[in-house]
Amino acid sequence: MSTPRYGGVFGAATGLTNAGTPLPRRAARVKTVVERGVAGQPDAMEDPTATERPPADRPDDAGTSGHDENAENADEAGKPGRISRVLRSLGPGIVTGAADDDPSGIATYAQAGAKYGSALLWTVPLTLPLMIVVQEACERMTLATGDSFGALIRKRFRRGTRTWVTVLVAALLVSNTVNAAADLVAIGQGMQLLHAGPAPLWSLILGIVIGFVVVRGSFEWIARIFKWLCLVLFAYVAVLAVAHVDWGAVGAGLLGTGFRWDTGYLALVAAVLGTTISPYMFFWQSEEREEMLRKGAKGDDPPRLDERPPAKARRMLLLGRLDVITGMLFSVAIMFAIIVGSAATLGAHHKTVTSAAEAAKALQPIAGDYASILFALGFIGSGMLAVPVLAASGSAGFAALLDKPWSLDRPPHKAKTFYALLLVSLVAAIVLALIGVDPISLLVVAAVINAIAAGPFVIVLMLVTGSRQLMGEHRNGPLARTLGWATAVIMCIAGAFGIYALVTGS
User: Fold this and answer.
1) Is the pLDDT assigned to residue 365 strictly greater than 60?
2) Domains of the chain from N-terminus onward
3) Rounded to whole angstroms, how far apart are CA atoms 325 and 188?
4) CA distance 82 to 78
């Protein structure tokens, strides 16, 4: 029997194959609403015998998140087990989406709302499909190959091209470090706003705590902490409850009626795109998924997707895409809440802000203590999530590119390059946070590097996920190619304009 081919995202909602043959009942039940157009291959009739599970001791039976045989049986036994299994499979997309709303991103969104009201809200529906297509490519790439983005860059490109990509990854590592420093400053300022003590002291304490957790904790423990930290971002949704929102203006903003051509406005558009679609997200998405696959394979190299039973492969793709879509929806929902909340409070009172801490402080006389406290708690929690993600994503990407072992589950002596880069990044971030460097200056440096790197990294991602040799039947399909390359063009334009605006002081 030939191996079934699977379609990509956004297809086959009818439950029929391209030939019009009904899928098996179980396959029809999951309805590949999020499949066709990305993997680039037509759906074929799934072999009914393929739904039988292999023996529990086979590596192929290791699930996406390393669940055990009891979890598999629960999945078959009833709906509660299936729901539990889906929830366990979520992780990389949710964490990536939450880390995207770090203090620097929050400051950008708050500035957009404070300065232009609802006029930048149209960027929310614009960025959602771009984020989904890029992060889905990262997810599918790792599921299909068992490797992270850094390792696949090494395999895809020859030495000359790989050298240029290595320079980009090194620049990303620097940018992540600078961004992490700005986030540590923001965390300290948030604690000071809550009257917990001086900001530098908290930047130091929490920087050390983050370093200890990342180096000494297991991946499973760290991933669980990350998932819980995501919940603090709902504080920004709560801010809307105390803000007097003009929903008519919100609707007009979503439709883009407030668009303008002045340089300052366009520069902020570039900043919003740059902070929303950041290169470190590509690496973290693939790295966390590889960690989960490796855990499921009990530490061995995870098998490729085409080496797994067809039903298992189909289910993993579906759950992976669900994770990505959920995470990106969560991310843009928080983005929406921050812009709307800032527009209704800071913008309505003509308050200008340049940082998350300034936004929280400015909210107090306008919306009351609760709004200010919620805003501060939100960026403290998101900073605690973003700092280790920033440090680990660049370090793991660089180590994988150099063909060096990496993993948060490996002890330091078995992944020396990875942990050396990780510790250097964290220590440098703590030092920058303590020496009193203006956090806005740090964010400007990080923004310039990200603006230069974002477009090229999307291009690299499209070349990797479009490779027949690496991806096989799971390479990019027509929809993924179209949206992916459109994202690359948009990010290159946004990056070029962002650099121009920074150079000219716009």
Assistant:
1) yes
2) 1-51 (no CATH), 53-89 (no CATH), 91-504 (1.20.1740.10)
3) 32
4) 7
